Amino acid sequence: MCDLELVNDRLNALIGNLSAQSRKEMARNIAKKLRASQQQNIKRQQSPDGTPYKPRKEQPIRGKKGRVKREMFAKLRTAKYLKARATTNEAVVEFAGSVQRMVRVHQYGLRDRASRGGKEVRYEARPLLGISQNDQQIIEGILITSLSEY
Hints:
Elements: H1 3-17, H2 20-43, E1 82-86, E2 91-95, H3 100-108, E3 111-113, E4 120-122, H4 133-149
Antiparallel strand pairs: 1-2, 3-4
Helix pairs in contact: 2-4
């Protein structure tokens, strides 16, 4: 057994010793911090690894005049669509409801129709959710704080 597995087993034992309410509170704190981090990434128009999103495609000449003034995914970062929830065993940050399909297309760079009768378009991959090194440090900090209070 390597050292990392030993540390992991001991950490799982310590977390298992916490009451269900304490584990749920810890998971809720983790989920809230992760949601805030993901919202900031979306606001800065960058993927979790720090690379900027690919810009929108240029519109055809006969299309709408002027530039698109809204930033991409502005509404998606609101609490209405980006949900954080927790149970005693997990912390989840997810997109809710009808936007899941659109988010999946952009997350993985899939093909989709921009409108019902429109032609199929291949979208650039623009990862909206993911765990960065900073997020891992936040999670570790919350774990240490929760275990030290126990």
